[in-house]
Write a structure and sequence with these properties.
- With 192 residues, this protein is of the alpha/beta class.
- The chain folds into three domains: 114 residues, NAD(P)-binding Rossmann-like Domain (Rossmann fold); 34 residues, 2-Layer Sandwich (Double Stranded RNA Binding Domain); 40 residues.
- The protein has six helices and seven strands.
- The strands form two sheets. The protein has a five-stranded parallel β-sheet with strand order 3-2-1-4-5, sandwiched between helices. Strands 6-7 form a two-stranded antiparallel sheet.
- Helix 1 links the parallel strand 1 and strand 2.
Length: 192
């Protein structure tokens, strides 16, 4: 298999369909909400966490099985049904519409995999095993969260301010780049 292409998507106000409403789907929905997505969930049975989100109007919920046509209008699709046959139907529809689809724990029905994500302030580090060992990716994420300095989040804010100041004060792009790299290297050396 070719190497996967890493990407961070801006999902703010984009429609995302999640088919399935168990505990795994609930975790996916929570991550999608953090990303600002407009989440629509379809499932015949719904876990308590998702019902709470739907009651709070954080997600739109329709309690019924998946039907062909449900993927229309979605920017992204997550199949969290636990049923490979249903996941395959969802994948086929999504792909026919040109919509990326992830089927949880079902690599054959994915056009993308979701990585384990380290979150420290505004720093995001995605960990992937190319879909081969998601549990290991999660363990690596935990290890990184334990070992990376928490000051990384504050460093991002400082870096943004310094970068903005350099843009105003330094006309040479090459010189701005040099100064920024030197500044960042010094700060990173202190953190690590």
């Amino acid at each position: 298999m070719p190497e996967l292409f890493p990407i961070f998507l801006n999902l703010a106000k984009r429609p995302v369909l999640v088919v399935g409403a168990g505990k795994v789907a609930a975790r996916k929905v929570q991550a999608l909400k953090l990303a600002g997505a407009d989440v629509y969930v379809i499932a015949p049975a719904v876990c308590g966490d998702l019902r709470t989100l739907a009651t709070g109007n954080e997600v739109t919920l329709e309690e019924r099985p998946y039907r062909r046509g449900d993927c229309e209008g979605a920017f992204l699709v997550i199949a969290a049904t636990g049923d490979k046959t249903v996941n395959a139907a969802i994948r086929a529809e999504a792909e026919s519409l040109g919509i990326p689809v992830n089927a949880v724990d079902d690599p054959a029905n994915c056009s993308f995999y979701t990585p384990a994500v380290v979150r420290i302030g505004d720093v995001r580090i995605a960990v992937s095993t190319q879909g081969n060992a998601p549990g290991l990716a999660g363990m690596l994420r935990e290890r990184l969260e334990e070992t990376l300095p928490q000051g990384l989040g504050a460093l991002v804010s400082e870096a943004a301010e310094y970068r903005a100041r350099l843009k105003q004060e330094e006309p040479s792009e090459a010189e701005r780049s040099r100064k920024f790299k030197e500044w960042a290297r010094q700060r990173l050396d202190k953190l690590f």
